[in-house]
Every structure is written in C-alpha cells, then in structure tokens.
UniProtKB/TrEMBL annotation:
InterPro entries: MAP1. One of its GO terms (biological process) is axonogenesis. This is MAP1B protein. It comes from the Eukaryota. One of its GO terms (molecular function) is microtubule binding. GO terms for cellular component: cytosol; dendrite; microtubule; microtubule associated complex; neuronal cell body; synapse. It comes from Dicaeum eximium. The gene is Map1b_1. Signal peptide: none annotated.
Length: 130
C-alpha cells in the first residue's frame, strides 16, 4: 500500500495480445489516445484510419508510425490492411515514405484518391475497395 510508483500512462495497458478482424483506430487516429502499446496488443487484419483535420493532427503521423513499430514486434507476419476513410496529406506522405517498411511488415493500404465532380462543384473523395 505504501509503495506507490510513478509510471507512464498508456492508452492500452501492457498485457497479452488481442486478435480481432476489424479495428477502428480511436479518436480519429489522434496520438493522444493511441500509442505503440495499442498496436502491440490490439492485432487486427484491418485497421480503419479516420481523420481529416490537419490542424488537429488527425490522422496523426505518429499513430501511423506506431503501427509500424508495434507490428514489427508481432510474432507472426499476418497481413494487415489499413483503410483510410479520407485522403489526406499525412496519409499520402506516410505511405510514400514508409512504403518499403510496409511491404516488409506485410501491411497494405487500401485507398486511392479521386475527385468527384458534380455540375459546378468538386470535392476530394477516398475510394475504398474491399
């Protein structure tokens, strides 16, 4: 009772891994709620990455890097598919800069950017194929 230790708080406490089919990365993939431990423990075939607010750093480049770091520590090389819900500069840069590492870790990103044009307006769209 008298032995209180100061420890770093993590989004997911250490423990055995959980295996899931589909995981939505919490809080628009903001690094305040997701860390490396999340990806060490929460192992999924598919991760949905949302977030389209660069001012709020969503999705966070750090979270995407945490996925790489966490998956590198898995004891298997199961394929992981990352599904972004929006096309973002952060996602495009991360994809290009870490593509080789993604391949080494058997991570695939399923999205392609496109633009929807409707009469007098156009807007970006993210096409997801499963």
């Amino acid at each position: 009772a008298g032995n209180s230790k100061s420890s770093k708080s993590t989004a997911v406490p250490p423990g055995p891994p959980m295996y899931l089919d589909l995981v939505y990365i919490p809080n628009h993939s903001n690094r305040k709620n997701v860390d490396v431990e999340f990806f060490k423990r929460v192992r999924s075939f598919y991760y949905v990455v949302s977030g389209n607010d660069s001012a709020a750093e969503e999705p966070s480049r750090a979270v995407l890097d945490y996925l790489l770091e966490g998956k590198a520590q898995w004891d298997s090389n199961m394929q992981v598919t990352l599904i972004p819900t929006h096309d973002s500069e952060v996602m495009r840069e991360w994809y290009q800069e870490t593509h080789e590492k993604q391949q080494d870790l058997n991570i695939m990103v399923l999205a392609s950017s496109s633009t929807v044009v409707m009469q007098d307006e156009s807007f970006p769209a993210c096409k997801i194929e499963l």
